[in-house]
Design brief:
- This is Phosphoribosylglycinamide formyltransferase.
- It comes from Enterococcus malodoratus ATCC 43197.
- Pfam families: Formyl_trans_N.
- 39% of the residues lie in helices and 22% in strands.
- The protein has 190 residues and is an alpha/beta fold.
- The protein has one domain: 3-Layer(aba) Sandwich (Rossmann fold).
- It has a seven-stranded mixed β-sheet.
- α1 packs parallel to α6.
- Glycinamide ribonucleotide (GAR) binds next to α1 and β5.
Length: 190
């Protein structure tokens, strides 16, 4: 399975995925890292893993449609079969969804359908929930609405700061995402 990771920022999830591919825990080839920010830290991580990196920004295009068309061209050029969103902070448009039906996976830092959107951890923290977590799901045309593949729960202790909760969420993400991707890639091999 030829996978591409799309990421916008730090890239800690990219890092654990790249490591799991390197150790053959995920039976796949990581053929591309794409970022929609030229200066995203994730690109430095990609270079360290010697994975082909590409980046361009929405503002370099006349509209979102031409940005997505360029992204689709890149994914085709690398013969990508599975698109893995890891902190990619954009809605996926119709063209990409049609080209990769049930082939785009996302990780969200809350127990969907609760707290969708850009600030899943903070929104759950400010709502004062005792339990939140992580969701991995297939991407559809909604915002964080596609079919759920797996969830991991995180308990919020009374004394937890927002930073504590972020740390707990990322720990679960870093365990769960490689596991789920390994399962997806294995079931595709059968
Ligand atoms: C992760 O917590 C991921 O769940 C979240 O962005 C973070 C990226 O961290 N994604 C979303 O909020 C998507 N709506 P990373 O860059 O260190 O992997």
């Amino acid at each position: 399975m030829r996978i591409a990771v799309l990421a916008s920022g730090n890239g800690s999830n990219f890092e654990v995925i790249a490591q799991a591919v390197k150790e053959k825990k995920i039976p796949a080839e990581l053929v591309l890292l794409f970022s929609d920010h030229h200066d995203a830290y994730v690109l430095q991580r990609g270079q360290r893993f010697e994975i082909p990196c590409e980046s361009f920004e929405l503002k370099e295009f006349s509209d979102k449609k031409s940005y997505e068309a360029a992204l689709l061209d890149v994914l085709k050029r690398y013969d990508v079969e599975l698109v893995v969103l890891a902190g990619y902070m954009r809605i996926i448009g119709k063209e990409l969804l049609t080209a990769f039906p049930n082939r785009i996976v996302n990780i969200h830092p809350a127990l969907l359908p609760n707290f969708p959107g850009l600030h899943g951890i903070k929104d759950a923290y400010e709502a004062g929930v005792e339990e939140t977590g992580v969701t991995i799901h297939y991407v559809d045309s909604g915002v964080d609405t596609g079919p759920i593949i797996a969830q991991g729960k995180v308990q919020v202790a009374k004394e937890d700061s927002l930073a504590d909760l972020e740390r707990k969420i990322h720990q679960v993400e870093h365990r769960l995402y490689p596991e789920v991707l390994a399962e997806i890639c294995k079931s595709d091999e059968k």
